[in-house]
Design goal:
- It is a single chain.
- The chain is of the alpha/beta class.
- It has one domain (about 25-50, about 100-145, about 170-360): Ribokinase (UDP-N-acetylmuramoyl-L-alanine:D-glutamate ligase, 3-Layer(aba) Sandwich), CATH 3.40.1190.20.
- The chain has helices spanning about 25-35, 60-65, 80-85, 100-110, 125-135, 180-185, 200-215, 230-235, 235-245, 255-260, 265-270, 315-325, 330-345; strands at about 5, 40-45, 50-55, 75, 90-95, 115, 140, 150-155, 165-170, 190-195, 220-225, 250, 280, 290, 295-300.
- It has a 9-stranded mixed β-sheet. Strands 1-5-3-8-9-4 form a 6-stranded mixed β-sheet.
- The protein is globular.
Length: about 350
């Protein structure tokens, strides 16, 4: 993947001359892997908002001028997205989206990953599909929609390395049950679902259908809570998913506390271990806590010389954990691989690794 420095003077170039989806794994492998109890063709299949990230550095004064809440993710319309984009200085543009970042991390570690998300046949859609293909992630983009642009996320990184995100979801938010590639879901050892996508009833139906397909084929289902503001919007739905559909849950301590509306992490852990068999909770510089009904494993964070950008830290932790999990590693080792992947991504700007993560293990 090659980051692109934004050129605001360049006009629209028209639709791309190439398709927006490139399968990294042949379709015959997907069909073979999708049969009941057959070996999976993929380690992890992700579903999420297919977005292109626009990342820029700015001070706290920029946040104040534009009424931005530091560390939050806010959904915006296209006019707000374009206004913020025009106010930024130099920016880096690269394909993103939380679950897509995680799938790229799995591939970077040497795993087999696929991704289901929705883009349009425009410039940003082509960038998104090409970036996934470049790192070996099979992309299943769903059905095309007329007149709705590919989504984008404006990310402002302040000097304390906090990232503040303003997201125009575009066509990514229109993902529904008809966009779910059931053969790909059935072919993945673990399904990974992104909480950010959960704002529309069609998306909720798509999640539930995907989870049902995974379980019908003997696969496991994982969910990332994504953001405490996201949890606040969908607390009842997320709680129901965790109780009935989710085998592996990811979240940071703020998200888990928000899910159970408690102030103390230990109280949240006590609640979640009653409802989910495996939970990985990231706790910032303290590392992570892996929770099962039988016990808790604390994993230290990997040291980082300098934290430049926390964008993608949770995404890459999940990538490392799932890579370890699908390759039979003990839970503490899964957490350690997650910490290694997260440490790499916070040491530079951007939500995806700049080195092959497999070389760091």
């Amino acid at each position: 993947m090659v980051p692109v420095v934004a050129d605001r003077g360049r006009g629209h170039r028209g639709p791309p001359s190439r398709p927006v989806a490139w399968p990294a794994v042949p379709d015959d492998r997907i069909r073979a892997g999708g049969e009941q109890d057959s070996p999976p063709a993929f380690d992890v299949v992700g579903i999420g908002n297919a977005l292109v990230d626009v990342i820029a550095h700015a001070g706290d004064d920029f946040l104040a001028r534009h009424d931005l809440v530091k560390g939050s993710m806010t959904l915006v319309d296209i006019d707000r997205a374009l206004g913020l984009y025009g106010s930024l200085g130099a920016a880096v543009e690269m394909s993103g989206g939380s679950a897509a970042n995680t799938m790229c991390g799995v591939a970077s570690l040497g795993g087999r990953a696929a991704y289901v998300g929705k883009v349009s046949p425009d410039d940003l859609g082509a960038v998104f599909g090409h970036d996934l293909a470049a790192v070996g992630v099979a992309f299943r983009p769903g059905e095309l929609e007329d007149g709705v642009p590919t989504g984008r996320c404006i990310i402002v990184v302040t000097p304390d390395a906090q990232r503040t995100m303003n997201t125009y979801l575009g066509v990514s938010s229109l993902l529904g049950p008809a966009d779910i590639d059931e053969a790909a879901i059935a072919a993945g050892a673990v399904l990974y679902m992104e909480g950010y996508l959960f704002d529309r009833d069609d998306a909720k139906a798509a999640f539930r259908r995907a989870a049902a397909v995974a379980h019908e084929h003997g696969r496991q289902v994982s969910l990332t809570l994504s953001d405490s503001f996201c949890v606040d919007r969908h607390r009842a739905d997320f709680a129901a998913l965790v109780r009935h559909d989710v085998d592996v849950l990811f979240g940071n301590e703020g998200e888990l506390r928000a899910l159970y509306e408690v102030a103390d992490l230990d109280d949240a852990v006590a609640e979640v271990r009653r409802h989910c068999d495996l939970v990985a909770v990231t706790t910032g510089a303290a590392g992570s806590r892996i929770v099962t009904p039988d016990g808790i494993v604390d994993v230290a964070a990997e040291p980082v010389a300098r934290v430049l950008d926390t964008t993608g830290a949770g995404d890459l932790y999940a990538a490392g954990f799932l890579y370890g999990y699908t390759h039979g590693h003990p839970l503490d080792e899964c957490g350690r691989i997650g910490s290694i992947a997260a440490a790499e991504v916070i040491s530079h700007v951007g939500p995806r690794p700049l080195v092959e993560l497999r070389t760091l293990l």
